[in-house]
Each structure stands twice: as C-alpha cells, then as structure tokens.
Amino acid sequence: MTEEGISLPAFPAPLRTLNEPVAWRVEGDDAITLTAGPRTDLFTDPGGPDRFANAPALLGRLDGDFTLAARIEADLSSTYDAGVLLLYAGKDTWAKFCLELSPQGRPTIVTVVNRGVSDDCNSLSLDGAEDVRLRVSRLGGAYAFHAAVDGDFWHLIRYFALDGEPEVGFLAQSPTGDGLSVRFADVRYTAGRPAGLRDGS
C-alpha cells in the first residue's frame, strides 16, 4: 500500500480499505486475497432492525462504462460466507454480487441491492462447480451482474440502477462464522460495456 492506496496492476485505480480489513495481500498482477474476521457482514434487514456494516472491502473509483471480472476462490464453510464484488456509493446505497454459502450448505449466486434497506435475492445454486467468475458492468446509469460457471458463457443475473457514483471493488464476509479468506483471481478490467446483456458475451 502506498500513500495513494493499494495498487493491483489489473485494476486501473488505487484501492482503499473499507471497514479495516483483517488482512489483504496482492498476488502478482491480477490476484488479491482479502480476509474477513468473525461475524462480518454488509446487510440491512428490510424487516428490521438488524443492520450490519463491518465486512472488509477494497474499493476504487472507475470512470465511464467498464466491466470488472474476477474468479472467486474461497473455502465457504459457514452459512453466508461469501466472496463479493461490491458497488459502494455510501452506507445506505450499495450492491453486492456474491458467491455465498446458503443455509442449505450450497454455494449460491446471491445479489443484494441496498437502497436504505437490503433487497436480497438468491439465484443459481452451484453444487459441483469448480470455476466461478463474477462480473460487474456499468452501462451509463445502469449496472449489470453476470456470472460464468465452468465456462465462458456469462449469465445475466441482475440489471439495475443505483444512485450516486459508486466505487467498485472486493469484499469478504463471514456473518455466522469465524472468518473467511477470499482470493479474487484473474482480475480483469475492460473499458466499455459488454457487447450484449443477454447473449452470454
């Protein structure tokens, strides 16, 4: 980490810490490991009153349209353990794209969009998947979450708007466990938007 922030060559901007990460480690040009401590989460229960905002993240500001992708590598062992790509515009305005362990013990693609309170949605269950990549894209004032599972077809998981000018980056969480290390590997940034939202590109 320099005075300007954390440098990851594959990410075209300095990264800053959010919520005092327990540990982070840059590995080569395109991988970074982030470790969350016990009982860490980012979630505001829409039924109230629970609010959690102590999960560690690394965030940077990217201009214009972009795609940011990473392979998520983590030993998910406790319920809601997750490796996350994060859009963060402030404590009440953010969006998470997660590879998360469900209460049924299955790795699951989960999205959460927070506009004051959290909108929580489980998508694909990934039993047996060996290679899971997540991608966040900005398309003007809109954002898209895509996942690629054991292949190169990018499944559209969520398309939405988010107020403000969110930073983008990486988060690790372990809401019910004793901590989690997540390796974000093969980090890839591309200027511009995907060729199509729903054609797998």
Automatic annotation (TrEMBL):
Entry superkingdom: Bacteria
Database matches in InterPro entries: ConA-like_dom_sf, DUF1349
Pfam families in alphabetical order: DUF1349
UniProt name for this protein: DUF1349 domain-containing protein
Biological classification of the source: Bacteria, Bacillati, Actinomycetota, Actinomycetes, Streptosporangiales
